[in-house]
Every structure is written in structure tokens, then in C-alpha cells.
Specification:
The complex is a heterodimer of chains A (about 625) and B (about 80).
Chain A lengths: L5 E6 L5 H9 L16 E6 L5 E6 L11 H11 L10 E7 L3 H12 L5 E6 L1 H6 L2 E3 L1 H8 L3 E3 L8 H13 L14 H15 E4 L5 H9 L4 H19 L2 H21 L4 H18 L2 H17 L1 H15 L7 H6 L4 H7 L6 H10 L9 H11 L4 E3 L2 E2 H26 L11 E3 L7 H35 L11 H4 L1 H13 L6 H7 L8 H14 L3 H5 L2 H8 L2 H13 L4 H11 L3 H27 L4
Parallel strand pairs in A: 1-3, 1-4, 4-5, 5-7
Antiparallel strand pairs in A: 2-3, 6-8, 9-10
Chain B lengths: L11 E6 L6 H9 L7 E7 L8 E5 L2 E5 L1 H4 L2 E4 L7
Antiparallel strand pairs in B: 1-2, 1-5, 2-3, 3-4
Classes of the chains: A alpha/beta (about 625), B alpha+beta (about 80).
The complex binds guanosine-5'-triphosphate and magnesium ion.
Guanosine-5'-triphosphate binds next to helix 1 and helix 4 of chain A.
Chain lengths: ~625, ~80
């Protein structure tokens, strides 16, 4: 098979490269209305107008070929053909934002000067129109000397035209491309860009600018902060308020399945495996799908509207105080979803020490995998009543747990920046995108993707860990008539018994020790592990089997233990995937091991302090 | 007048930038944002409770955020004959 022609999408951050990539290839790359969404090269396949296949690559956005951060280096290396193991693209599609041509054309001119066959996609013409700006693509094409095609990537407008031009471009003999960017005076290129941008304007009618109006509130020193806090607050209230009905439904289904399995199967290992391990174990995690989706709904909305950079702006004062760059706030906010994309997103941070610090504190942001753990304990121990009209206590406690993680992260950053990652304090230089209304189909697609990912996790890693735990809990069997319980007699029970020596001082019991080890695979496993332990413990006791995991916990754990468990999970040593991605992003084992160590110590101390304080206060 | 002192929403032009205050990569990023001698700027928002937070300003058609110490390196002029 012959090699496919290779075409790269390049341009400024947030120009709509990934949106165009998705529209052309049918891929589902992540989009977001802030600079720095894409941080690595992604390839896909596109069919030209005549059906010929072409390999298309989506690249991180950058302002010039003078790369400042690791993500921008990828773009530079791919475009210049210096990426190890990759050939140089045969053609470029430069994506420019029609509503910000002055700026985007400067980089476009730099790229055109490379001499590769090039097309310019004049994207976001709808936004330019919204701002009262009308442009002439023909003038642009003449001035730039390359084809210019008006597109609206998110509405799939202009794509056929783009495919057609691309076909023609690949057919014509390729000119000799330059291996070094031609030396040109930066200011001269900018001047030319501005001249061309002006020449292309057909009409400009001043219009009411939505963005400026919203920002007067959103960036206001007082109201802006109140708005941000309010948003987060509503988010955690919603996690409880909106999820009751769907959770009850899933619980009902799981219960029905367990009953059916119990009735249909004879008592024995198979039944125990299905009921204790699969339905009660994995089911106890799947129950949290609605809450996780509600959390993601808010995160997706923040990302799509353009609010992310505003949040970073508001938080910059604190970030500056602890020696981080304001931009680091965005990877940290993404870590609420999961630390892995958060750690990847630190590639947009130019300063290496700044970036390392951000990586090291990312696991302190409460990821969505911890939500089930929090939710199960809160559900069991925190009464579902309102502290204020409309403000539920459970949502409030959840909010506090997240805030505790953030405060912990800031304190750790402060200490790290004074010790192991000492260096010049980072700055905050960021472009602020215009606000956009999120498109419902984008949000729904995002939620759907998250649901699939979560269920896949439940079906693979959570399932496997739970099954392994079930085996280790079920064997060996205690001798007939023995007073030792099944769980205590099993392999897992004995291991937990050993571990408990270390964990007992901070109020943890055998069951928690049992749950913590498999929770390294995925944090939700802490919940499924507890469910499996209690399910096996219950044996055939009908009354016990009827009780939910939350009720069982409430029966068996004193309140100080439950609080200590929550405190542990604020800092809990992160999952194995996080360690692996940290190793990759820091090129070695040193930093992931450091991270694991300091988080373990913090978790231990936090859980211990919580337990001792709660005990001293006589809480129970 | 420094960019930090420029009243909000008053159009101005960049007179001078003290590049020595900025690290080479920060200086480069500012240039890439189009902030250079002669560029039109407009301060839009001051962040932070005690006026110590970052500044959002309009440069050409783009809105950018930067910290005060960087904005203080930018001298601007206003008035009818400020345009270069
Ligand atoms: N109105 C409008 N919005 C668009 C268009 N193309 C993309 N967008 C939106 O603009 C934002 C940025 O799009 P992306 O495709 O993520 O931008 P990108 O160039 O890949 O950005 P980076 O990966 O950060 O470099 C997203 O919110 C998109 O939904 C368009 O043609 N019109
Ligand atoms: Mg992208």
C-alpha cells in the first residue's frame, strides 16, 4: 500500500483546528473554548472530493514557530519535519479565526513562508458576522497567494470546498519546502498581516459585544469571585439534588438483579461471585454514574463557554502567591474530571519548574473517581437536611471536601516552590476567548463519552479488581464450626490484618485496610471493595442483605472513622494510571515516587488528625 | 503613563515597552499577542480585590490577560494625536 498524503492542521490556539479536524474526519477530539485544549498530535483519515484518502493531523495551537511550551514544540517539530519517526506533512491547512485576523495572519504568513503547499481555512466567519465584521476571502487569497476558504467548522460549512481545494493542491507538483523558517523581521511580518487583514474587511459595523458586557460582571473583583464561588456551590448542590431519582432507579435495577440471581442460582460459589462480586461490588460503583455526569455537565459547560480563562483570571492572585502561573489553574480545574488529562494539559506551561509543580499538585484536585467514595460516606453519615433554605448539608460537605483539596494543593505548591521546585515565579499571559453559547449536541456528546468511559472502567478495571478481591476474600474457607469469620480467615483478610497495624492508629478498621489496596487500581474500587466485603460478611443473613451499603457502614463505623476515611481520600495516594502518566510527563521515576510519598504522608496525617480530633470532641 | 494606570476603557497606544522586565519567552509571547510599540490598547478589567490582580486589556481585536508587573512595563499614551 502506498503512503497516504499527510496534511497538518496548524494555527493559533482556539482557532477551531480540532473542530475542523472532527468535521473532516468524523473523529471526536476534545473541543473547548480556551487556548491549549489540544496538547498532542492526533491523526485521522479524511476522504477527498473524489474519494481519495488523506491522513490528517490535528496539532496543538501555537502563536509562532518559536515554541515556548512542550505542546508548542510538538507543532513546530511536526511542521518542520523534525518529529522523530514522522514524515513532514505534504501540505498545511492553516486555520485562522476570522474575527481576529490581524493576529492570526501573522502566524499564517510565517507558515506560508515555509513553502509547503498551503490552504487557509478562514474559520469562525459566523463569529465575525456576530461582531459585525464582513470579510472578503478573495482579497485574502490574492494577498496571501494561497487559496482561502471560508468555513464554520462547528456547522460543517465550507468543508466540501475545502476538500476540493485540498485535492487540487495535492495533485499539483509540490514546491521545494524550506527546512528552516526564513529569517524575517517580526515587526515587518506583523505590519504586513495587519495591512492584509484591513484590506480584507468589506464592512465593519460596530455591534454590541456580548463578551465585554458579560466580563464586566464575570471579571469584577467582587462579583466575579462571588459568581465563581456560586457556580461551584451550585455544582455540588446539583450533584445531590439532581441525582436522587436516577440513582434510585439504578439501585432498584441492581437490587432486582441480585434478588433474581439469588433465586435462580443454587447457593454456592457461582452465586456468591455474581451477587457479592459483580452485582453488589461493581453495581455499588455504577450507582454513581448520575452524580458523575452532573459533575461533568458543569465542567463541560465551563470549558465550552469560555469561562475557564475567566476563572483563571480570578484565581491568578492566589496562584501568584503560591508561585504558580495563572495558566496552571486550567489544568488544575480539568483535574476535577480526572488527574490524567489535567497532567497532560500542563504541557501548555512553558516554565519547567512551574509545570512540574502543577503536575505534582494535580492529584490533590478531587477527581471524579473519588466522587463515589465521598458520596457513599456522606450518604451514610451526613444527614440529608438543609442547613439553609435550599442548601443541603450533604452538598455543602462535598463542597468543603473539594475546597480542602484545593487549599491543600495551594499549600503544597507554596512549599514545593520554596524547596524542590525553586525558581522564578511564573507569569500569566493568556488570550481571553470570546464567550460562546455551548451547543447542546456538543455537551450531550461529551456526557455520552464520559458515560461510556465510566461504564468501561466499571466493566474492566473496577470489575477485575473487584473479582480478584472477591477471590482473595472467599479463599481459603475457614474450617467448619470455626469462630473466625470468612473475611478474617481469607487471604485478603490476613493481608488487611497486617496492614491494619499501620492504619489502626488513625482510626481505620480492617474493612478500610481491605479497600485501600485495590483502590490503587481505580479509586472507585474502594466502594466496590467495601460492598463486596459486607456482602460476603452477610452470608445468608436476609436482614443484613436487605440493608444498603450506606446503612451497613453506619452500623459498623464510628463517625470519627468515617471522617478520617474522607480526609484520607482528599489526599489519598493516587491511582496507578496517574503515577504512570506522571512518569511519562516527567521522564523518569523520581517525581512519581516523590508524589506518591508526599501524598501518602499527607493522607496519613490528615486522616489521623481528623480521627483524633473527632474522637476528642466525642463525635459518634 | 503606564498601562496599569490607564483608566478603564480609554483607548490608548503603546509608546514604549521595557523589555528588560520581561523574560525572553514572556517578551516573545507579548509580541505574538501583538503588543508592541504603536499597538492600540484599552484596559478592560482589573482583577483582584485590592487592585493587585491581573489586568485584562484589548490589543487590536484580541483580549489578553497579564499580571500587573508585566503591564507596568508598558508605557502608553492617550489623546487625539497619540496614534502613531
Ligand atoms: N462559532 C464558531 N465556533 C467555532 C468554530 N470552530 C470552532 N469553534 C469553537 O471554538 C472553540 C475552539 O475550537 P477548537 O477546535 O477546540 O480550537 P483549536 O484550534 O483546536 O484549539 P487548541 O486545541 O487549543 O489549539 C470551541 O469551543 C469550538 O466549539 C466556528 O467555525 N464557529
Ligand atoms: Mg485543538
Amino acid at each position: 500500500m502506498s503512503v497516504l498524503p499527510l496534511v497538518a492542521l496548524v494555527g493559533n490556539p482556539n482557532a477551531g483546528k480540532s473542530a475542523l479536524f472532527n468535521a473532516l474526519t468524523g473523529a471526536r477530539q476534545k473541543l473547548g473554548n480556551y487556548p491549549g485544549v489540544t496538547v498532542e498530535r492526533k491523526a485521522g483519515r479524511l476522504a477527498l472530493a473524489d474519494g481519495r484518502p488523506v491522513e490528517l493531523v490535528d496539532l496543538p495551537g501555537t502563536y509562532s514557530l518559536n515554541a515556548a511550551s512542550p505542546d508548542e514544540q510538538v507543532t513546530r517539530d511536526v511542521v518542520m519535519g523534525r518529529q522523530a519517526g514522522e514524515r513532514r506533512p505534504d501540505a498545511l491547512v492553516i486555520v485562522v479565526d476570522a474575527s481576529n485576523l490581524d493576529n492570526h495572519l501573522r502566524f499564517a504568513l510565517e507558515l506560508i513562508a515555509l513553502g509547503l503547499p498551503t490552504i487557509v481555512a478562514l474559520n469562525m466567519v459566523d463569529l465575525a458576522t456576530r461582531d459585525g465584521l464582513e470579510l472578503d476571502a478573495a482579497v485574502l487569497a490574492r494577498e496571501l497567494g494561497v487559496p482561502v476558504i471560508a468555513t464554520v467548522a462547528v456547522r460543517k460549512r465550507g468543508l466540501d470546498h475545502l476538500r476540493e481545494e485540498l485535492g487540487g493542491l495535492l495533485d499539483s507538483a509540490a514546491p521545494e519546502a524550506k527546512t528552516l523558517p526564513p529569517e524575517r523581521d517580526f515587526d515587518a511580518v506583523r505590519g504586513e498581516a495587519r495591512r492584509i487583514a484591513r484590506a480584507a474587511v468589506v464592512r465593519e459595523t460596530p455591534s454590541r459585544r456580548l463578551t465585554a458586557a458579560v466580563d464586566r460582571v464575570a471579571l469584577h473583583p467582587v462579583f466575579g469571585l462571588l459568581l465563581l464561588l456560586g457556580l461551584l456551590f451550585v455544582m455540588f448542590q446539583a450533584v445531590y439534588a439532581w441525582s436522587e431519582a436516577p440513582i434510585a432507579m439504578i439501585e432498584g435495577l441492581a437490587e432486582a438483579a441480585a434478588t433474581a440471581a439469588r433465586d435462580a442460582l443454587p447457593d454456592g460459589m457461582l452465586r456468591s461471585f455474581l451477587v457479592d462480586g459483580v452485582i453488589n461490588g461493581v453495581g455499588s460503583v455504577v450507582v454513581f454514574l448520575p452524580q458523575i455526569l452532573i459533575l461533568f455537565f458543569f465542567i463541560l459547560m465551563l470549558e465550552a463557554t469560555g469561562y475557564m480563562v475567566r476563572a483563571a483570571f480570578l484565581m491568578d492572585g492566589i496562584m501568584a502567591k503560591v508561585g504558580l502561573s495563572g495558566r496552571a489553574f486550567i489544568p488544575l480545574l480539568s483535574s476535577f474530571a480526572c488527574a490524567i488529562p489535567g497532567i497532560m494539559a500542563t504541557r501548555t506551561i512553558a516554565d519547567p519548574k512551574d509545570r512540574l509543580t502543577t503536575i505534582l499538585i494535580a492529584p490533590l484536585m478531587t477527581c471524579s473517581a473519588r466522587l463515589p467514595v465521598y458520596a457513599v460516606i456522606i450518604g451514610a453519615f451526613i444527614p440529608a437536611r438543609d442547613v439553609l433554605p435550599g442548601v443541603g448539608l450533604q452538598g455543602f460537605v462535598l463542597f468543603c471536601l473539594y475546597v480542602a483539596g484545593i487549599i491543600g494543593a495551594m499549600l503544597v505548591a507554596l512549599i514545593l516552590r520554596m524547596t524542590v521546585t525553586k525558581g522564578a515565579s511564573g507569569g500569566f499571559l493568556m488570550e481571553m476567548p470570546k464567550y460562546q453559547w455551548p451547543r447542546p449536541q456538543d455537551i450531550l456528546l461529551g456526557l455520552w463519552q464520559r458515560a461510556v468511559i465510566f461504564l468501561k472502567r466499571a466493566g474492566t478495571i473496577i470489575f477485575t479488581s473487584t473479582v480478584i478481591l472477591w477471590v482473595l476474600l472467599s479463599y481459603p474457607k475457614p474450617p467448619e464450626g470455626s469462630a473466625v469469620s470468612q473475611v478474617d480467615y481469607s487471604i485478603a483478610g490476613r493481608i488487611a490484618g497486617g496492614l491494619n497495624v499501620i492504619l489502626e492508629p488513625i482510626g481505620f478498621n480492617r474493612d478500610i485496610s481491605l479497600a485501600l489496596i485495590p483502590a490503587m487500581a481505580a479509586r472507585e474500587v474502594a466502594v466496590s471493595a467495601l460492598a463486596t466485603v459486607y456482602s460476603i460478611d452477610a452470608g445468608d443473613d436476609e436482614a443484613l442483605l436487605e440493608r444498603s451499603l450506606g446503612d451497613r457502614l453506619k452500623d459498623q463505623w464510628p463517625l470519627p472513622t468515617a471522617l478520617a476515611f474522607l480526609a484520607w481520600f482528599i489526599f489519598a495516594p493516587q491511582c496507578i494510571s496517574t503515577i504512570a502518566v506522571t512518569r511519562r510527563e516527567t521522564n523518569g521515576w523520581k517525581w512519581p515516587m516523590f508524589m506518591l510519598g508526599y501524598l501518602f504522608v499527607l493522607a496519613y496525617v490528615a486522616a489521623g488528625l481528623t480521627f483524633w480530633t473527632a474522637t476528642a470532641l466525642g463525635l459518634s | 503613563m503606564r498601562l496599569t494606570e490607564l483608566p478603564l476603557r480609554q483607548p490608548a497606544f503603546v509608546d514604549l515597552i521595557d523589555w528588560s522586565v520581561l523574560s525572553p519567552s514572556e517578551g516573545q509571547r507579548l509580541r505574538e499577542f501583538g503588543l508592541c510599540e504603536g499597538a492600540s490598547v484599552e484596559a478592560l478589567h482589573h482583577g483582584g480585590l485590592w487592585g493587585k490582580g491581573p489586568i485584562a486589556c484589548k490589543v487590536g481585536r484580541m483580549t489578553i490577560a497579564m499580571r500587573r508587573n508585566h503591564a507596568a512595563a508598558v508605557t502608553v499614551r492617550t489623546g487625539p494625536d497619540a496614534a502613531p
